[in-house]
Design goal:
The protein has about 190 residues and is of the alpha+beta class. Helices cover about 25% and strands about 35% of the residues. It is built from four helices and eight strands, in the order βαβαβββαβββα. Strands 1, 2, 3, 4, 5, 6, 7 and 8 form an eight-stranded mixed β-sheet that branches.
Length: about 190
Amino acid sequence: MPIRFSEPPQSAAKHASKLLARGESLTRPHRVYTLTARDLSTGKGLRAAHAGHWRFLIERGGKIAHSVDVSAGGLAHHSRGRRPADAAAAIRRLFHDPASRRARYELRVLTIPALSVKALWLAGKRRSILIPIAPVPRRITAGARYSPQKLLAILRPLAAARLRFDNSPADVPLSAQERPRVLTPAP
């Protein structure tokens, strides 16, 4: 099989297995990499992505029930609902796609928290492929294959805009109506 899953450290698998209920099993472990908005906006690309926690999909009755993210120190995040199911469906499609069989890839996940973007990352020796997982920003198609250069070029202006956004309170004096009232007790 040209798509491979990395072998997680035994401690990560041990922490994840503690969360299993009866009839559940760990499947498809993969590493999650994080790219910051600053690194993205300055054009640093995938080389700036930091290897983070391990993600395990948890299977029950032949279907993905949820996922668990495990850091070096133990549980990082437990996720139920649509995101793990969407990721599992995207991974399943990869195994049935003839284009995925043409080269050897390691399956990873790339996350860009500032933009709420997650993508499957097929990391190869000569080239990589990014496949965004829904929900995605406009101008990006979930499930489509992108070169890292193309996808990151689309996301770069969004990251720059996010960095420019400032929601801190302005140093503007408040009018009499906007000032908080101080209530004093009656004598």
